[in-house]
Amino acid sequence: MRSRWIDWRSRQAQFALVTVMLVAAGTASAGLFDDEEARKAILDLRQKVETLRTDFDQKLADEVKRSSEEGAQLRRSLVDMQNQLEVTRAELAKLRGQDEQMARDLAELQRRQKDSAQSLDERLRKFEPARITLDGKEFSVESAERRDYEAAMAVFRKGEFANAQVAFVDLLNRYPASGYRPAALFWLGNAQYAIKDYKNALTNFRSLVNSAPDHLRVPEAMLAVANCQLELKDTKAARKSLEDLVAGFPNTEAAAAAKDRLSRFK
Q: Taking CA 260 as the corner, what is the angle to CA 252 and CA 204, rounded to the nearest 5 degrees?
């Protein structure tokens, strides 16, 4: 564009020079020809000047028009480039938003998978044997077995001894080799003693002593055996049970209670 402008400036200068020369030539010739020829020569010069001016103006207008069209085309190109740039920015923003959404979806999926895995582990653990310690003994129990024992104990703690008897009997029948068996026999005997079923209570306390002689509850069970015998008016057997308790477990609270009761027989 700058080179074209310089070119047209040069042409304009040339046109001005030609015009001056023609006018000068006309002035010089006026003295050489007569008036008629001078006027004719001047008219010819004017016609040539006008023709040159018209041609120059037309070329200048064409050049200006072409320059304007090129400028308009350049502006349209710039507008198109700007539009394309905006479209590209919008697409990038959309892709960025999609990436962020995908990242959030992935995080949510991972969280759900983790929660599902934990939930599955928890459900599986409910069916797996668990190691527990009760009355100083450690053993494995099934989830249902543990649930039934804890349910029976809950009934016993409420003081519903008849219902507790039913619950413990059901537990012992369902799980005859259960690690809960010594404790279940002990609490079953206590429930039966509470409802004055002394014979069955005596049987279950003796079963505990005979089947698990090293169990923590044995001294209490032996004292309970003597109590049942006293309730059944079998004083001789009660004395023997108390003496066996003192001899076998002399340093226990049950033995101290047995000594106190033996003193009453004298």
A: 60
pLDDT tens profile 202-250: 999 999 999 999 999 999 999 999 999 999 999 999 999 999 999 999 9
Class of domain 130-264: mainly alpha
Query: Which candidate, 139, 179, 177, 157, places its Cα nearest to that of 167?
Result: 157
- Every domain of the chain and the residues it spans: 2-94, 130-264
Q: Which amino acid is at 235?
A: T
Backbone angles phi, psi at 131, to 5 degrees: -95, 125
Residue whose C-alpha is closest to residue 217's, from 189, 243, 193, 237: 189
Tokens at residue 246, please? 């003192």
Our separate counts of H helices and E strands in the chain read 9, 2
Kindly report the pTM of this predicted structure.
0.55
- For 82-91, the CB contacts below 8 A with 24+ separation are none
Q: What is the pLDDT of residues 108-126, one digit of tens each?
A: 888 887 887 677 656 655 6
